[in-house]
Structure formats: C-alpha cells, structure tokens
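Checklist before submission:
- one chain only
- standard amino acids only
- sequence pasted in full

Submission:
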Amino acid sequence: MKTWIDRMSAIPWFASIGNPDSRDRAEALLEPVKAAFGLPDVPVRWLTLPEAGEFVKRYDITSSPMWPTLFELPERIRTAAERNGRMEVLSFAADDLPEAVFHAAFGGAFPVLQAFGQEAVRNAVCAAMYVSGLAAGWELAGEPPESNPLQPAIALFELGYWPLGLFEGRLCLL
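Returned file contents:
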C-alpha cells in the first residue's frame, strides 16, 4: 500500500505538458489504452495549452465512448475485492491514496494550468485522483497488474503528460 503512495507521489504530475521530448514514448503507451477501451483506430491529438483550456470547459466524460468502461471499473474492482477477500485493503485506495495524489497532482497542475483558470487545475487534479485511485484499487483488489486497464494511463502520467480523453473522435493528450 505504501508502494502506491510512494509511486503516486513520485510522479512528475503534468511536468511534460508542452514538452515534445518524450511524445513518441507516450504515443506508444497509448496503444494498450486504446485497446482497453475498444478504440484501436482512434487517432491521437496533442493539444496546446490554450486548446486545453477550452477542452476542459467543453468536455463531458459521461458522453465519451470511454465512459462505459470507466463507469463499470469501480464495480468490477469491488467485486474482485470481495471475491479475493481484500475489501479491507481496498479501502486504502479510497481513504489514504487520494490525499497523497491530491497534494502531488495539485503541486504539478497549478503552475502549468493556473493561467487557464481554476476549472483547468481542478479537472487535472480530479483526473489524477480518479485514475490513480482506480488503478491502485484494481491491484489492491487482487487483480493481476498486467490486466489493469488503467496502467497505461498511469504510465502516461509518469511521463508527465495528461491523457485527457476522447474528444471529437480523437484521443487527446496534453
């Protein structure tokens, strides 16, 4: 459990936004994300910071084709935790991890996104908390790490990028 806090605290949250240096590595990580969400042929689009400001104002994840998979993950995790006798351990993902992620993600998001308003910073931090909580929950529930559908998204965050989601037929990153 401490491993997850250490791992999430070590992420350079949003530090590579606007930096093209490791975009090739990031795009390679997207292939499993696209496969996990049933979107193998969706093109990738790197947004600029000003575009990201507009994106967070218009994006509604519940209307995204990715939402059904994201929506069902908490229930799949809970079911796996019950099946594997790991409900007590799973509470860590809901109780302790969010605080650690909040502080680290806010520290990364604020300097990069503050010019685009509080909404941009809030959405970035919430995305970090949601994805990391589900990714940790998956593994704490006793499911194999290699089958974790959010592991590639965590890897993108570890590179300092933000996988924004599917918008206008493209998988958008910042």
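Reviewer check: The chain has eight helices and three strands.
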